[in-house]
Specification:
two-stranded antiparallel sheet; 419 residues; mainly alpha; globular
């Protein structure tokens, strides 16, 4: 909202108004504003949640310190929502199709998580919103994002073209023409653009349409997978919040280099017009998650609940797709990926062994993965993996997961040159 105002003031030579034309300045303001909102408004929201007795219901899973969390305010994702939305509305260009999609996706997924938390807290139904309704909501958001990216004339790319000399890349140029495309970036590969439509070369004139159908299906899968991954990761104080902040930094860097022709040419990646606004949005996202971590760090004063976890996972997924870096998700979102994989593997192995032997066996002492480290080994738990034998304190598990997340974040950024 402020950008058009300051553009007008800049034309009138108003002192300092020209600063709003710089992405770096608007991103810095968005980050600081989001951090301020989360830390200043957060305390009031926590007090309001406590007053309304919006407390977390805790199941006794025989984990150290677990029952002490009973009654801790939940639905704290509302703090993150406010801290993301206000800077985004003030500091981004609202006529940008990427921002419009992100704002809508953020609200939808937050609303979906809010419905789940509301049923758990106020309806006293510990199962919350039925799983199929969550999946339907996530699929609809992914479908909307994919379809809008298909039909919108503003969603275009300018491809990176390599010039060879003696079988070596001499230079990389960014094409002047902006085109609709189903191309994305592949990590670790020299010829680093994958065209979804290229997988349907045998379909002739229907090739491009088939490519877009596959692209939309991929978007749906990514939105559902990453938002559910973030939801599963939100099981220890600060784990999902800190991990999301680290991922946010990766996406800021990837969005920035994708929105600058010089960096895109140097790194041999496609240039995406309009993606610079995503830098501002994600700067606010980082500020919001760090600000929420002020209250969510061990011992947590508030939990984000599904209100926050589905939302932050959805934001990460949608931005990754918009900057055509969705194939990097298994690297920089590896924590979310492993948490989801541990749950899937645990359930499948339990069903498989129960069907074959009549007694269900487990791979991990407990899933999701972060709880595995909280349980003692060889304590009557029929798990294939018993180590560590001694339970690890929750705060140490969280910090170690953050460290792994940081390493993976660096790796994800490094893939731009590791070809």
């Amino acid at each position: 909202m402020l950008v058009p105002l300051f553009e007008y003031l800049d034309k009138l030579d108003f002192p300092g108004a020209g600063m709003f034309q710089y992405i770096s300045f608007r991103s810095a303001v968005a980050f600081i504003l989001a951090l301020f909102i989360a830390t200043s408004v957060g305390k009031r929201i926590i007090l309001a949640l406590q007053f309304r007795q919006v407390g977390e219901t805790i199941r006794d899973l025989d984990l150290e310190g677990q029952m002490s969390k009973k009654g801790t305010p939940t639905m704290g994702g509302l703090i993150i929502l406010l801290a993301i939305m206000i800077p985004a509305l003030l500091m981004t260009k609202l006529n940008n199709v990427y921002i419009q999609l992100l704002l809508f996706s953020t609200l939808c997924l937050c609303g979906l998580g809010f419905a789940d938390d509301y049923i758990k807290v106020f309806k006293k139904n510990k199962d919350g919103l039925k799983g199929r309704f969550k999946i339907v909501g996530q699929v609809l958001v992914g479908l909307l994002v994919g379809v809008v990216m298909y039909v919108s004339p503003d969603v275009v790319i300018r491809e990176n073209v390599e010039t060879f000399r003696n079988d070596q890349v001499e230079s990389v140029q960014i094409k002047n023409e902006s085109v609709k495309s189903t191309k994305t970036t592949i990590p670790f590969i020299k010829n680093n653009n994958l065209d979804y439509a290229g997988l349907f070369d045998g379909m002739g004139k229907h090739k491009q349409a088939a490519g877009w159908i596959l692209f939309i299906a991929v978007v749906i899968f990514i939105v559902a997978a990453v938002s559910n991954g973030a939801n599963l990761t939100d099981g220890q104080d600060g784990l999902a919040t800190g991990s999301s902040a680290i991922i946010g930094v990766v996406l800021v860097i990837l969005a920035y280099v994708s929105s600058n022709t010089n960096y895109a040419s140097y790194l041999n990646i496609m240039y995406i017009p309009g993606s610079q606004e995503l830098v501002v949005f994600m700067a606010g996202f980082i500020g919001a998650t760090i600000g929420f971590l002020w209250f969510n760090a061990y011992p947590a004063q508030v939990f984000m609940g599904d209100t926050g976890s589905l939302m932050i996972g959805g934001v990460i997924a949608v931005v990754s797709v918009m900057i055509r870096k969705e194939l990097l998700i298994p690297i920089f979102c590896c924590i979310f990926f492993l948490e989801s994989l541990s749950v899937i593997a645990q359930r499948l192995y339990f069903k498989f062994t129960k069907k074959r032997t009549g007694v269900g066996m487990r791979i991990f002492k407990m899933a999701p993965l972060h709880h595995h480290f909280q349980k003692p080994g060889n304590a009557g738990i029929d798990a294939l993996i018993q180590k560590p034998l001694q339970p690890i304190p929750e705060s140490k598990i969280v910090v170690r997961f953050w460290i792994v997340g940081l390493i993976l974040a660096v790796l994800a950024i490094a893939t731009l040159k590791m070809r």
